[in-house]
Amino acid sequence: MIFISYRILLWVLYPFLIIYAMFRITLRKDFIEEHLYKLGMILPNASLNTNNIWIHGVSAGEIASITKLYKIFNDHNYNIILSTTTSNGYEMAKKFYTSANLYYFPYDYPLIWSKWIHRLKPKVVLLVELEIWPCLLNILNRSNIPCVLISGRMGEKEYKRYKYIQSFFKEVLSKINIFIVQSENDQKRISSFNISPQRIFKEGSLKYDIEIPDNPQNPIHQIQSGGGKIIIAGSTHPSEEFIILNSFKSIILNHPEIKLIMAPRHIHRISSIKKITQSLSLSYQTWCDLKNLDGEKRLTKNILLLDSMGDLRYFYKIGDIIILGGTFTKQVGGHNPLEPLYFSKAIITGTHVKSIENIINDLISNNAVIKLVDNDSNLLTHHIEELLNHESYSREMGERGKIYLNTHKGVSERTYNIIEKLLAEK
Questions:
Q1: Three-state secondary structure readout of the chain
Q2: 118, 134, 147, 325: which has the fewest Cβ within 10 Å?
Q3: Tell me, what's the pLDDT at 117?
Q4: Contact (Cβ atoms closer than 8 angstroms) between residue 302 and residue 280
């Protein structure tokens, strides 16, 4: 009964989704393709390949996390189809996976999914982290196409929400063949929906297998900071920038040579960050302007605003202290801390880490991260000053983080082996 109500609700919403799409397209013409795919008005190209793997990641973080797994499937001659929901995820996928067939993920309508499945003919569908689409799962189940949740997680908030309509989600989750999850907590929460333990594998996060290739031609290597330390605030959100910039204004008083590189999670928000910077009487330059200069890229201002997609992970290499975005706002709950750990960097987070709580708790246990007890700019300033004034403390924290990262690698290979076994038994 709930499933029928869900489908009726979808069709009631469809006209409003069209209106929403038209509104967004009037704001930005580059939204046209995205919304035509989401509404099912554009379909993916028909595939003649019989060895198709379809991987879906909702946004940039999930898309970046599958780098190693993508390579493994590619090396085993699978044809990889990628889908994503957001424009950030789409731009990231275009940059990282040039050989993939890439599409925007449509809304959860049975008629659209039937056409997609007919055209793509996937051997298996892999959903990254927490992607539960009842109509898609139903179509896959009826088509005898296996579905696997990879790097799966179910936080406390999602768990409580799903338990509220438990009978519905028991039926929906039963249509996923295998759950490859990040932690024991995820394992327990998923099993509570009558999922057999034999179908749940605790292997960790795919993000542990991060690989960031070094490219000597990358203009980031030509950046000259003038001898000052570099703080990087990565993947920031509204309300976070003021806290960080206000703290940075205080730090400049004792460290006038210091630099801040700020990378918003959504680069279209650069203009609003410029206004905050100006309101605090701070000067800035943008990366797109700087990288187009000939020769060395000298940071002439205290603040560099990163206004390009997919470059943040490379900037972490030149940073000294990393402020993790998404952790100062409850609505987000944190972004991936493993990219800065790849370069052995000291990390500071805000109080909100629900989306990455397993990793952050491990890092706290290993003295490899500083988590603030309050999202206060003065407290942030205190901890940054502590790291600046005690370089060995900062260096050792980064080294402990790198050791932690290295001891958790191998998730992609284990995930691939589980999927291969499933396909062999099919």
A1: CHHHHHHHHHHHHHHHHHHHHHHHHHHCHHHHHHHHHHCCCCCCCCCCCCCEEEEECCCHHHHHHCHHHHHHHHHCCCEEEEEECCHHHHHHHHHHCCCCEEEECCCCCHHHHHHHHHHHCEEEEEEECCCCCHHHHHHHHHCCCCEEEEEECCCHHHHHHHHHCHHHHHHHHCCCCEEEECCHHHHHHHHCCCCCHHHEEECCCHHHHCCCCCCCCCHHHHEECCCCCEEEEEEECCCHHHHHHHHHHHHHHHCCCCEEEEEECCHHHHHHHHHHHHHCCCCEEEHHHHHCCCCCEECCCCEEECCCCCCHHHHHHHCCEEEECCCCCCCCCCCCCHHHHHCCCEEEECCCCHHHHHHHHHHHHCCCCEECCCCCHHHHHHHHHHHHHCHHHHHHHHHHHHHHHHHCCCHHHHHHHHHHHHHHHC
A2: 118
A3: 96
A4: no
Q: How far is CA 316 from the centre of its chain?
A: 16
Q: Which of 302, 274, 276, 306 is nearest to 289 (CA)?
A: 306
pLDDT at 221: 75
Taking CA 233 as the corner, what is the angle to CA 215 and CA 82, rounded to the nearest 5 degrees? 55
Half-sphere exposure at residue 98, Cβ-oriented, CA atoms within 13 angstroms? 1
Strand order in the sheet with 230-236: 284-286, 303-305, 259-264, 230-236, 321-324, 346-349, 370-371
pLDDT in tens, 15-64: 999 999 999 888 877 789 999 999 999 999 887 788 999 999 999 889 99
Residue 109 near residue 41 (C-beta atoms within 8 A): no
Q: Which residues pair with 290 in a beta bridge?
A: none
- Say what the pLDDT of residue 295 is: 73
**pTM for this predicted structure:** 0.89
